[in-house]
DNA sequence: CAAATTCTGAAACAAATGTTTTAGATATTT
DNA sequence: AAATATCTAAAACATTTGTTTCAGAATTTG
């Protein structure tokens, strides 16, 4: 009966994501987006929808990609405490090597305060990280690898909580060493 | 020779700051601002300048006010370790009772990545906090009130670093208890 | 009080914004 | 290959954006 959509929707969303990631929601114009995506606005409105819908898809894409990566990276590690350390260290690596900082945190502070739909997605992402890390913390406590605290929930919050500060710090100071020193101290605290 | 400016510039900037604080730089329009400030755009351009200049004044106002408050609050406290604890606790109080989160952090993630002028102001604010807390940490170490680490610089970074995570956490979860638990743990770690 | 100066308000400005329209190109089905 | 359906591109759309203009009101000084 008819033609098919010509552009690869996943690829297009990924390109839109790059722009939103760099410029934020309000700092991005529809022309920025269509230019980066290589499509016309009529195609965009016919397939994905308006700017807001495209943004929703973009953060979803961001968080989903990140979740998959985290799972893949931690899966092969047997020791829970080693996995926790790996998780912290690779967070430091990403934070200190990503020029555009973290799209989820940027979004939290820019629009999650007022946009419920966005907030839900961000919350789900945070809960995924929480559950992933909490599983490891609980196991590490059972094995006696962690003794600083017996409150796994709190320690999970405590560990995750460092990341946005490091992102903020890196934007302001662009100093990897001081972040690495904090991470080393954190790991030492947990290992004690 | 002539008339004086009719509006109170400090008050006007303070009202503009409220809008920027809530809506961010890109989310705020000139009409939002002139409406909140109760002045005409011609008056605004004749006195303060354009939107960007008004934003600069707004964050400056924000950070300066905050610095004064911090000094006032910590001055009467004699014991360095008690002052550090007070600093952490009152941060928790502000974080969990401020519906608009922190303007400095929001600004860092929204525009400090690309706006050098803004970044300078934010950096100066962070360095002020750093110096304030670092003085206390050094004294507490000399007195033997802190023993977890002898690296005052690193521990200062480490303590300050918690705050943006708590802000992020409060936006997403609106849960005071879990933040208070993290703060209690942090204080316990320092006191050890 | 008169003159001089500068501030204010409303309107106007061009440019940019998010979105829609429309005519024609393109692919699928029969 | 013809008919049909739906996609695409360019342009147009109404609003909204940040900023400026200008006539008149207001205040200070002589």
Topology:
2 copies of one chain form a homodimer.
Chain A: H1 9-23, H2 30-37, H3 41-47, H4 51-74, H5 80-95, H6 103-112, H7 116-142, H8 152-160, H9 162-173, H10 176-191
Chain A binds a DNA duplex (30 and 30 nucleotides) through helix 3.
Features:
homodimer; 192 residues; mainly alpha; Tetracycline Repressor, domain 2; DNA-binding
Summarize the amount of helix of chain A as a percent range. Answer: over 70%
Kindly estimate the percentage of residues of chain A that lie in beta strands according to DSSP: under 5%
Mean pLDDT of chain A: 95
Number of helices of chain A: 10
Computed CA radius of gyration of chain A, to the nearest angstrom: 19 Å
Remind me, CATH topology of the domain at 62-191 in chain A? Tetracycline Repressor, domain 2
User: Main sheet of chain A?
Assistant: none
Quaternary status: homodimer
What is the 3D form of chain A?
elongated
Domain HTH tetR-type (chains A, B): 6-66
GO molecular function, one term (chains A, B): DNA binding
DNA-binding region (chains A, B): 29-48
Keywords (chains A, B): DNA-binding, Transcription, Transcription regulation
């Amino acid at each position: 009966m008819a033609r098919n959509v010509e552009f690869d929707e996943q690829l297009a969303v990924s390109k839109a994501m790059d722009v939103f990631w760099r410029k934020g929601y309000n700092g991005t114009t529809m022309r920025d987006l269509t230019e980066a995506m290589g499509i016309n606005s009529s195609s965009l409105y016919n397939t994905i929808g308006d700017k807001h819908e495209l943004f929703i898809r973009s953060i979803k894409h961001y968080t989903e990609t990140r979740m998959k990566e985290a799972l893949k990276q931690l899966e092969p590690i047997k020791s829970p405490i080693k996995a926790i350390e790996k998780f912290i260290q690779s967070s430091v690596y990403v934070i200190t090597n990503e020029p555009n900082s973290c799209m989820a945190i940027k979004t939290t502070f820019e629009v999650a305060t007022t946009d419920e739909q966005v907030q839900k997605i961000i919350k789900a992402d945070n809960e995924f990280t929480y559950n992933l890390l909490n599983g490891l913390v609980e196991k590490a406590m059972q094995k006696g690898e962690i003794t600083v605290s017996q409150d796994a929930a709190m320690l999970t919050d405590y560990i995750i909580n460092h990341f946005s500060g490091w992102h903020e710090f890196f934007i302001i100071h662009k100093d990897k060493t001081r972040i690495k020193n904090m991470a080393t101290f954190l790991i030492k605290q947990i290992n004690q």
